[in-house]
Structure prediction request, 232 residues.
Amino acid sequence: MLKIQNVSKVYRVGGQDFIALHNINLEIEDGAFMSFVGPSGSGKTTLLNLIGGLDSPTSGEVVFNGFHLNEMSRDQLAVLRRENIGFIFQSYNLLPVYSVYENILFPLLLNKQKESQVRDKVMALVEKVGLSAEANKKPAELSGGQCQRVAIARALVKDPLLVLADEPTANLDVENSHHILEMMRTLNQETQAAFIFSTHDEKVTRFVNREVALEDGYVKSDKVKQPNGELI
Ligand SMILES: Nc1ncnc2c1ncn2[C@@H]1O[C@H](COP(=O)(O)OP(=O)(O)OP(=O)(O)O)[C@@H](O)[C@H]1O
Ligand SMILES: [Mg+2]
Prediction:
């Protein structure tokens, strides 16, 4: 589904080049459930942004579902993202004036679907993330864990091939983190959407099927879950 080929990212900072990613090569299969781990500054967010077509590599290329992102225009990338990729941000990025229901509905309206035709689908997702009682509340009336669940539902509502989540549990306590991770894993199994998230959070390790560790912009290790549950 995703090929990352010889990808480097160089930022120009104060007249000097800073290499945030060095020649990364990764293949990620359909339906993956995996994380990028590594210390602050190791390149996790940079790599997620390149995969999601939010930013472009300095060299190398990202191929998503047969599309060579380098060869696409800004508008084409925007359509590709809108139709195929769900984003979950650490800070949720919910629309404050809209209710839970409306926030989850919003990506479908952007994809030119009619509310009357998707209302049941949106409500089913509201229920699936456990927010039926909160459907008419605004983000300011929700807890952090509830906001994160809205963000997950919003990312999934368009049946994306890929969900990218940058530190999805960073603002949550242990109990809520577990709940969110379990929910994402269940949704991954039910919907076959691939999930890739970045995290500092050690707890995430036991939920994923693959863990790619980054350090100073290099891939330091790439571990896959074994039948005994160990990542090797
Ligand atoms: N727009 C930018 N301009 C210049 N340097 C940048 C830019 N974005 C990121 N960097 C640098 O690239 C490196 C990788 O940053 P990135 O945000 O990908 O790290 P990260 O692994 O996500 O860290 P964190 O865990 O703190 O979120 C850092 O050293 C950062 O300072
Ligand atoms: Mg980051």
In short: The mean pLDDT is 94. Residues 90 and 168 are 5 Å apart (CA to CA).
